[in-house]
Amino acid sequence: MKDTEYARLYLPDSTICQYLAMAVERDTRGLTLTPAERFNYYPASPFPTLSWIWQGELQMVQDVSDSQLPQMGPPLPSMVFSGPYTRPSASWSAGPVHALMVGLYPEFVTQVLGMQLEECFDRVIPLQRLREAMPAWFWQLCQLVHQQPALAFQTLQQQLQHQLRANQASLPPRTLSGWLRAMLLRASFSQAGSSLRQWQRHIKQLTGQSHRDLQLYEKTEQAFSQFARQNTLAGTEWAMLAAASGFADQSHLGREVRRMTAFSPKRLQQMMAEDESFWFYRLLRQHHRDLD
After folding, report:
1. Contact 227, 241 (CB under 8 A)
2. Which of 27, 131, 222, 276 makes a 20 to 30 Å CA pair with 250?
3. Which of 223, 208, 226 is CA-nearest to residue 85?
């Protein structure tokens, strides 16, 4: 577990790292925040998520890129499933909130849970609506986690280990790039003798996205990892960072980072340093620094 004062990042045990990417707990019950500081900003991500809201209410922002007064959706139910997000997202709470968001690997959702991701992209869905689509044991597990906020992630891990008989340790990817390489390798071996088109179709079936789309997430993560190491805005060599991350040039980097986060690289770095609403990005930054 890695934490700041009011947010915690959990990494899964090696026995279930092929199912869970990471988890984030947010607890603002002891924190005084202004309305502007109650936003929660997230980048686009290929990972679907499960969220439990134990206290308070969260509302999704309808359009993160809108420069006008943001429009809020209705309050979310206490358990929700979110598909992969091809664009940045944000939520807002009117008061204190205590919640847990767990990132799932797409293959776990499609192969183990038997759910289709194509209809879930860029959507937050009440978990109750998906009850018939998921195994009964997983619905029961979600209910159990909802009843135990103090030990939620530990409960989730233990029950998955028991249900899936996950007792063989393996090294967790820890990063999106690591997951992508491992997933592509498994897909290659499972499609021995097939054509490139069949391999690409298999990737799409596993993740809901094309190999090209996934590579963009990977390059953006590499860029984020590079500027996570920067302690100050001064002296950041954006052109060199773009080249090291696989982008054609600085402008290309800027376009794709904005597409994934709604902010330019420089603005994003500034907001991570100054704005409470970017607590999730700070957790990711610390995670990447710890990997060095």
Report:
1. yes
2. 276
3. 208
Phi, psi torsion values for 283, nearest 5 degrees: -60, -45
What would the two tokens of residue 253 be? 């980097």
Question: What does the chain come to in residues?
Answer: 292
CB atoms near residue 234 (< 10 Å): 6
- Cβ(174)–Cβ(290) below 8 Å: no
C-alpha radius of gyration, the chain, whole number: 19
Q: Which range is least confidently modeled, 1-5, 72-76, 231-235, 261-265? A: 231-235
- Confirm if 65 and 262 have CB atoms less than 8 A apart: yes
User: Which stretches within the chain are classed as H helix?
Assistant: 106-107, 136-146, 152-164, 176-190, 196-207, 211-228, 238-244, 250-261, 265-274, 279-291
Residue 104 in this model has a pLDDT that exceeds 70: yes
CB atoms closer than 10 angstroms to residue 249: 11
256 burial type by CB count under 10 A (0-12 exposed, 13-18 middle, 19+ buried): buried
Predicted TM-score (pTM) of this structure:
0.88
Q: At what angle do helices 196-207 and 211-228 cross, to 10 degrees?
A: 60
